[in-house]
Amino acid sequence: xxxxxxxxxxxxxxxxxxxxxxxxxxxxxxxxxxxxxxxxxxxxxxxxxxxxxxxxxxxxxxxxxxxxxxxxxxxxxxxxxxxxxxxxxxxxxxxxxxxxxxxxxxxxxxxxxxxxxxxxxxxxxxxxxxxxxxxx
Length: 136
Description:
The protein is an alpha+beta fold and 136 residues long. The chain contains six helices and three strands, in the order αβααβαβαα. It has helices spanning 10-13, 24-32, 39-50, 67-71, 94-99, 108-135, and strands at residues 16-21, 58-62, 76-80. It has a three-stranded mixed beta sheet with strand order 2-1-3, with helices on one face. α3 crosses α6 (108-135). The longest helix is centred in the last third of the chain and has 28 residues, at 108-135. The two termini are 17 Å apart.
């Protein structure tokens, strides 16, 4: 049964890293829209801050997530300590899911969509951890 807690599990959240691409392609797309190269990073950080998790997880700028992804950028990758590389999250668009990278994250709404997927992943993992404990 899904968790009904108001806030995501901090321990589970700490296992995730959100990496916002600041490559030339992604930065150029932001600049063309009249935005700073760190705008997307700031929007993602603001979402984490609103959830009270900005100190529990890593939110950082990063390099190119692959030329194809950066052409669709600005892009955001999610990593988890138990997996190698980027992970796909439930709620990503089909093209994002296949590449394990969020595309075109420019606005507060885009960042909210990324964050919604992130919170959902945290809740699902917390629910799985609870179920494993209950089964023991």
